[in-house]
Amino acid sequence: MRLWDLLTGTPVGTLVGHSDYVNAVAFHPDGRTIVTAAEDSAKLWRTPLHHRRTIADEDAAPDETEVRSVDGRFVAEKHGERVEVWTVSPRTRVFVAPPAFTDVTQLAFSPDGRFVAGKDDKVVRLWTTADGRTSGTLTGHTDSIDQFVVSADSRRIVTASQDGTARLWDTHTGRQLGAPLAGHTDMVAAVAISPDGRTVATGSADRTVRLWDTGTQRQLGLPLIGHRTTVWSVVFTPDGRGLTTSGEDGTMAWDVAEPADLYAAVCAAAGGPLTDDERQRYSAGQGLPEVCAS
């Protein structure tokens, strides 16, 4: 795995240690710790020295998952069909999730540690960390949820689904906020919310990335085009002014400081004049003026 400077687009380091395909990467909020997951193991890396520690190996059961709260006090674990939350020190079990919700494929703590969330098919459920009480059940998608993220202030969750939409949810009430974020023409495979909570980014199998206003649930500007395969990952930079997107065709970095004016990004990604078909596909119902002229 390589580390890149987003300002210059040049590599600044290489993390060597995995022996198989790396399919997930995440930074800790401290900006200095990276966790990578591959077919062979999961590892923690400390930058800039790139020291590593293996935290799970290929012998681990495929239906086991472990995530820790941001403050390091709690750990949520999935063992087969059982989800448990423990304190880290001393190791004491806090609760076991009800057995009716057992096919969990993603777990995440809220940044404030108030709740832990887990997704199962079309549903995301929230449990209060302190006592395991079910504090919210997020239902509304008509097909499986691929991914969810919790906002930095822990007040909202955004879900991405194979039904072609993303949705915003209030974590206190469990209610959907406004209309679905609809515009993609295929499943939504990736989602992110900006650090200030004002913008959502979605990546799709339609090969586009779209930005949305969390207050109005409306699309901001035009889709970001350039990927030739499904967009599997979208990540905002810590200042919210940049966006990194990844697919099987590679990784792209975008300047999204002014999301309402994305014509330049569209033209740069297209690499030339848009065809009539591309104008129709990427206009998002807003129409495209005479841009990307030859």
UniProtKB/TrEMBL annotation:
Protein's UniProt keywords contain Repeat: yes
Taxonomic superkingdom: Bacteria
Gene3D superfamilies the UniProt entry points to: YVTN repeat-like/Quinoprotein amine dehydrogenase (2.130.10.10)
First and last residues of every WD repeat: 15-41, 104-137, 138-179, 181-222, 224-252
Keyword vocabulary terms for this entry: Repeat, Ubl conjugation pathway, WD repeat
Family matches, as InterPro entries: WD40/YVTN_repeat-like_dom_sf (IPR015943), WD40_PAC1 (IPR020472), WD40_repeat_CS (IPR019775), WD40_repeat_dom_sf (IPR036322), WD40_rpt (IPR001680), WSB_SOCS-box_domain (IPR051983)
Keyword Repeat found: yes
Listed name of the protein: WD40 repeat protein
Record organism: Cryptosporangium japonicum
